[in-house]
Amino acid sequence: MGPLVPQEIIGADWNLFIAFVVGIGFGFVLEQAGFSSSRKLAGMFYGYDTVVLKVFFTGAITAMLGLLFFSLFGWIDLNLIYVNPTFLGSAIVGGIIMGAGFIIGGFCPGTSVCAAAIGKIDAMVFVGGIFLGIFFFAESFPLIKDFYMSGSMGPLKVSDVFGISGGALALLVIIAALIMFKLGELAEKKWPREEY
Amino acid sequence: MTIKNIIFVGLILLGVVIAMVPENTTKPYKLTAEQMLVEVQGAAEMVTADEVAHWIIEKDPTLQLIDVRTPDEFQKFHLEGAVNVPISVILKDEYRDYVDQGVKMNVLYSNGTLGSHQAWMILRQLGFQNNYVLQGGLNYWFDTIMNPEKPASTSPDEEFAKYDFRKAASGVFGGGSEATLTAPVQTEAEKPVIKRTQKKKAPAGGC
Question: Do B173 and B147 meet the contact criterion of CB atoms below 8 Å apart?
Fold first, then answer.
């Protein structure tokens, strides 16, 4: 049956509309979870607040289990799901840049828009920075194109790299996530902050 | 046991379940038996030899001929521009771009109609689009296009128009005219030379 959009059970127009509704919902939940506070986000790196880790890993685990069980029941064809192609070199460097920006600015791209929407000035500056970054990246693209395209591995799944089934990897991810949740709570106890 | 721990245990249990069960790698059929019945009875997947000849002569870029016979048979003779996708390997990933695409018009053919129709049924049930079957297969192709039979003098004009086209097409494909009706073997031998000069590596458009 699924996925609905690639098989055109849901048309392109409805796809946009649904994306709009889901996007609004996503932003709302981010705001409600306190993710429009850059102190809360930065807490992840200093150890006094690990809600970010918990929320996003819970989201990933829910989606992962959902997809795997839907596939098991024959409700969705995983072969039709779009998998981002991996470019190893640029992914590592891009991840470091993104992480550094996250710590310095106190937002990730999604939460910055969320915080700008409720009127936080630092978030608006952050969004301006995003656009500057996009501009400079696009303008300098010819210079870094070779590196950008390096390490191309195609649409790769971690389970394929390790040679285990998707379900086994899912179990490992769940266990790893729960261990990280526990470590996060320990960190929160070790480096507590009263007001933030 | 706190709610949090219950959720933790539940997640691990779900993880164990999904790790134990085999992955569902079956590719479910997209069309139901009833839908297939309607399609088969409608016979909309059939294209005539005349239509195909027309497209080949016009070098229609959307036409992709797919020969579902064995490689041996393909080597001996195939229509120009055809790619060989034997029915035994038609589900392999390497041919997926040929049989599952939304750009070209695939015309499957075999010697008769049986092999091509078997392939078409499988592809259609998987939900793949743009696959058609050459009506009558290569046998009919030889009978009509390569060696057209002159209609009786009392036949309607359309029959003569068809005959004229087939005769001309037969000339294009290097087949015998009406005079060489007894020499289909000769035409078979001539064919491959023509084909190899043609673009064989037609890129199948993926998405």
Answer: no
